[in-house]
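Hey forum,

I'm writing up a methods section and want to include a predicted complex as supplementary material. The small molecule is zinc ion. I've pasted the protein sequence and the SMILES. Can someone with a working setup run it? I'll credit the forum in the acknowledgements.
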Amino acid sequence: MEFAAQFDNPLICLEDLEGIRDRTGWSGVYSWYFDQLRRFITYKAEREGIRVESVDPAYTSQTCSQCGERGDRDGDHFACSSCGYERHADLNAAANIAVREGEPCTD
Ligand SMILES: [Zn+2]
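Reply by user p_vandermeer:
Happy to help. C-alpha cells for the complex are below, copy them as they are.
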C-alpha cells in the first residue's frame, strides 16, 4: 500500500469485475488473476484503514491505465491520445485500479 500512503485520505477504486466478466465472458486465468488481485488489494487496504470502493467499469473504461488521461474507446479497442497507449478496452479498464485523494470513484 505504499502507493496509497502518499495521500492523506486515500480511496482505492476497484473495477466491478463481475461486470467485465459478464460482458467479455472471461474465464479461467483472467478471472482467477483479477479475483486474486482484488482480494489482495482489499485485504491490504482494510488492514490499513483505507477505503475501497467498487466502480462500474463504464466509468473508467475510458481512462488510460498508463497515464490517467481520458482516452478514446471504440468498441473493444482503447487508445490514449495523450501517451499513445493502446489495449483491449476491458483489459485497460481492469488495470485501472486507482488511488484517489478522498474523491468519489465515479467522476
Ligand atoms: Zn495514456
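Some notes you might quote in the supplement: The radius of gyration is 14 Å. The chain has two domains: 1-57, 62-107.
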